[in-house]
User: Which sequence fits this backbone?
């Protein structure tokens, strides 16, 4: 599984940290962060077989932040249309 660029992303974490893989993300003023991950063929086969995903988070001994995972971009991103004030969901 690898992080990938996506519509709506506005920053990249760890861009200049060679010990980490750069992480494309959308971050808003409230501190909400959304990332997008692409499964390899092997990941996809394993997911179909087990129906499980494991998440590892480096907290550095700080409190764990709330997490939400989804396969549907429309559950995590909604964009405001600056021209007319309406909202549209990510695609």
Assistant:
């Amino acid at each position: 599984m690898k992080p990938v660029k996506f519509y709506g992303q506005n920053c990249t974490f760890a861009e200049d940290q060679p010990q980490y893989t750069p992480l494309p993300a959308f971050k808003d003023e409230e501190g909400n962060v959304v990332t997008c991950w692409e499964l390899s063929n092997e990941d996809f086969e394993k997911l179909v077989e087990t129906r499980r995903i494991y998440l590892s988070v480096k907290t550095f001994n700080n409190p764990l932040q709330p997490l939400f995972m989804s396969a549907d971009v429309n559950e995590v991103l909604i964009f405001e249309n600056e021209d007319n004030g309406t909202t549209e969901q990510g695609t």
User: Anything to note?
Assistant: The mean pLDDT is 88. Residues 2-89 form one domain.
